[in-house]
Amino acid sequence: MKQHYLFFIAALITLNTFSQTSFQNGYIINNLNEKISCLIENRDWNNNPTDFKYKLSENSEILTGNLQTVQEFGIDNTSKYVRSNVNIDRSPSNINNLSDTKAPLFEKEDLFLNVLVDGKAVLYSYEGIRLKRYFISVDNSPIEQLVYKEYTNFDRTEIGKNTHYKQQIFNALSCPKITPGQIESLEYKKNDLVAVFLAYNSCDDSQMTNYVEKRKRDLININLRPRANSASLETEAPVNSSDKIQLDTQTSFGFGVEFEYILPFNNDSWSLSIEPTYQSYKSDGFNTYDVVSGEILYASIDYKSIEIPITARHYFFQNKSSKFYLNAAFLIDISLDSTIEYNRDNGSNLDTLEINSGNSYAFGLGYKYNNKYSLEIRYQTNRDLLGNFPSLTSDYTSTSIIFGYTIF
Length: 408
What we know:
- By secondary structure, the chain is mainly β.
- The two termini are 35 Å apart.
- It is 12% helix and 54% strand.
- Strands 1, 2, 3, 4, 5, 6, 7, 8, 9, 10 and 13 form an eleven-stranded antiparallel sheet that branches.
- A hairpin with a 7-residue loop joins strand 3 and strand 4.
- The chain is elongated and about 95 Å long.
C-alpha cells in the first residue's frame, strides 16, 4: 500500500516538473490607461483571480499583474476581466448560516469582474468560495450587483428569497424581445442571465461579444478501455493455521467503458469519471499443513467481477495534442458467482467459499494523444475477497495496462 502511494507522489512531482505552462496572446490595460499586448498565463480561473502572470514576449521574464497595477486584462477570443470598485453582498447561502436580514449587506471592494456578455448591456460575474454574484452595466453606467439573497426569519423556521435582480433587469433592459413573463421566470443562473443580455443587445443590432460561447468546450467523454490484467492472490486456508497459500500470478483480459466529465475550469485539466469494468482471474496454488489429510492443501479460484472505479484525474498538457495524466480512484467491486475451492491431496474437497469482495483503491499514470488514444498503467491496492468470513483473510492485487479510445 505504501509503495503505491509513493509511486503516485513521485509521478505527480515528475509530471509537474515537465508540464508546460500555457501563456496565450492577450493584453493588459495599466493604470495609465495604456493597452499593452502580451502573453497571459491562462489558468481558466474557477474563482475570480486577484492576480495573474504575464510576459511581454515569449522569452521575457514572467511578471505579475494585480488589482493595484492593472485595470483590465484579457486573453484573445477567450476571456476578459475588468477591475471595478463595487458593492458586493457576501451573505452566506448555506442553509445553516443564512442571514435574518432580507436586504443585501453591501461592502465596497476592488474586484476583477469576469465579463460574460460585452455590449451595450454588460453582464459580469464574480465567483469565490461558495459565492456567485452577477453584475450589470448599461451604456457605461456604474457597475452594480444584481441582487439575489436567501434569508431566514428570526426563529429560522422559514426561508425567503430576495429576487430584486428581476426588477433591476426589468428597469434596465427594456426590449420587445424580453417580456415581463420571461423576467418573472428568470433564475439567478449564468445561462439564464446570459440569454437575457444577449436578447437585449440584439434588439438594436449593437455589437456584442458572448464570452460564455467562446469558452464552451466538450465536457463529456465516453472512452472504450480494454486492458491486460496481471493479478495474484494470497489467502488463508480454512484450517487451524496462519500459513497462507500463494496463488500463481496470472494474466487475463478485461474491458471497461468510462464516462468522464471534464470539470469546467483550469483549462480542462481536471476530470471525474466512473468506469464499469469486467475482469476475471483464475489460478491455483498449494501449501503443506500437518492437520490436512495428505498434508498438502490446494486452493483454486474462479473469480469474476464488475469493478466500478470512481476516479479523479489530473491532466498535464505538453502541447495541443499530447498530455499525461494521473488517476486516483475508489474502486467498488461486485463479484459474479465466484468461489475459492480448497482440496486435499487426494482430490477431496475440504471447503468451497463464496467470494464477497471488498472495496479498494487504485492509482494510475497515463498518456493521451490527440484527445483520442490513451495508454495507462494502473496499480490496485490489496482487496479482501473473503468478506463473508471474518476469521480468514485474503489479499488480491492487480496491475493493469489499459488502452483507451475516445468515441465521444
